[in-house]
Design brief:
There is one protein chain. The chain is an alpha/beta fold and about 375 residues long. The protein folds into two domains: about 120 residues, Alpha-Beta Complex (Aspartate Aminotransferase, domain 1); about 230 residues, Type I PLP-dependent aspartate aminotransferase-like (Major domain) (Aspartate Aminotransferase, domain 2, 3-Layer(aba) Sandwich), CATH 3.40.640. It has twelve helices and 14 strands. A seven-stranded mixed β-sheet has the order 2-10-9-8-7-3-4, sandwiched between helices. Helix 1 packs antiparallel against helix 9. The chain is globular, with a radius of gyration of 20 Å. It starts with about 30 loop residues before the first strand and ends with a helix.
Length: about 375
């Protein structure tokens, strides 16, 4: 039988390089995956342990406490008013990205196309593939998505346009007002993945909802802002009709964030101070890593406009990845993981503690 065969998971392709770090005291310094390593706030851990919600089934749409916390947080961070009723919980935003095309295609079966950034998180494309949809990459320019490159036919067939700002992997910022305007003018829902919004280095955090909620959703995660990737809590917010549809259909699938995780998520969204501290850590690590890797490699490495990744051209990305693993015991991601247009680049996640960054500098002989 000829059926769907999942491609190798991108990060599994790096496994062969990990043993190269065995010769170093302290072993591998993994800069390939954006996994937070810093501690979450103690109050969040306490909420996780003491909510008493582990006994019963959690609310699929999200508890009132979680959705109200999300609503207030969006007001503080972005200056937008989003009622709690127009917010839904997700079991980490990756599952939302991966399943949204299927759910939208059930609602709009005469459309079959998912538009996504040409250099981006691979799950945008994979979600389209798993839904049996066409995945159409939108070119990237210095100003973000090249909306003018979208053909009339692709626009007419589109279920959704994905935006990701700040971008993973590039850190670039989109003109989200322009993206929302394009979606409304073409009758295409826009979903803006904003999980790195609080790590925006050029100006204040931005959301697609600043121009209104009609036809758009903003997607947010606690994984990055609060170091809670293992808890799997996020939310979507925006267009009332679309949110209500997704809330109802997700109930039938049983997509439920565990109750203790929802309680912890509500506590995390109440607290902005820990995020400000995390911003300082990531900014410091980005600057230090850029300095270390530029001195070792001779590559030109600039600071991103947002997120906590360095993205820079190296030529042969796999050769660079192997050489860094061999000489420094560190692992980074070849850019082709994020699209063919990224094949000459690498992505470096500034998630390891400061001590690990300094150890890398020592191994590479650039610890001045």
């Amino acid at each position: 039988m000829n059926g769907f065969v999942p491609p190798p998971y991108p990060y599994d392709r790096l496994a062969r390089f990990a043993p190269l770090a065995d010769r170093f005291d302290g072993g591998l310094i993994d800069l390939s995956v954006g996994t937070p390593t810093d501690a979450p706030p103690l109050g969040v851990v306490e909420a996780l342990a003491t909510s008493g919600t582990e006994r019963g089934y959690p609310q699929s749409i999200g508890t009132p406490a979680l959705r109200e916390s999300a609503s207030r947080w969006m007001g503080r961070r972005f200056g937008v008013e989003v009622p709690a009723t127009d917010i839904g919980a997700v079991i980490g935003t990756k599952e939302f990205v991966g399943t949204l095309p299927q759910l939208l295609s059930l609602r709009t079966p005469d459309r079959d196309t998912v538009l996504y950034p040409a250099i981006s998180y691979p799950t945008y494309e994979m979600g389209a593939t798993l839904a049996g949809c066409r995945a159409v990459a939108v070119p990237i320019t210095d100003g973000g998505l090249d909306l003018g490159a979208i053909s009339a036919d692709d626009a007419a067939r589109s279920l959704v346009l994905w935006a990701n700002s700040p971008s993973n992997p590039t850190g670039a910022l989109d003109d989200l007002d322009a993206v929302a305007t394009w979606g409304r003018s073409h009758g295409v829902p826009v979903v803006s993945d904003e999980c790195y919004a609080e790590f925006t280095w050029q100006g204040p955090p931005r959301t697609v909802l600043s121009s209104g909620s009609d036809g758009v959703l903003a997607l947010h995660s606690l994984s990055k802002r609060s170091n809670l990737a293992g808890m799997r809590v996020g939310f979507y917010a925006g267009d009332r009709d679309l949110v209500h549809y997704l809330q109802e259909v997700r109930k039938h699938v049983g997509m439920m964030v565990p109750g203790p995780a929802q309680a912890a998520g509500a506590a995390a969204l109440h607290d902005d101070d820990h995020v400000d501290e995390q911003r300082d850590r990531y900014r410091r690590r980005l600057e230090r890593l850029a300095s270390v890797l530029a001195a070792w490699s001779g590559c030109e490495i600039g600071m991103p406009d947002g997120a906590f990744y360095l993205w820079f051209r190296v030529g042969d990305a796999w050769e660079f990845t192997e050489r860094l693993a061999r000489e420094g015991g560190a692992l980074v991601s070849p850019g082709e993981f994020y699209g063919a247009a990224g094949r000459e680049y690498v992505r470096v996640a500034a998630v390891r503690p400061d001590e690990a960054v300094q150890e890398l500098a020592r191994r590479l002989g650039v610890d001045r």
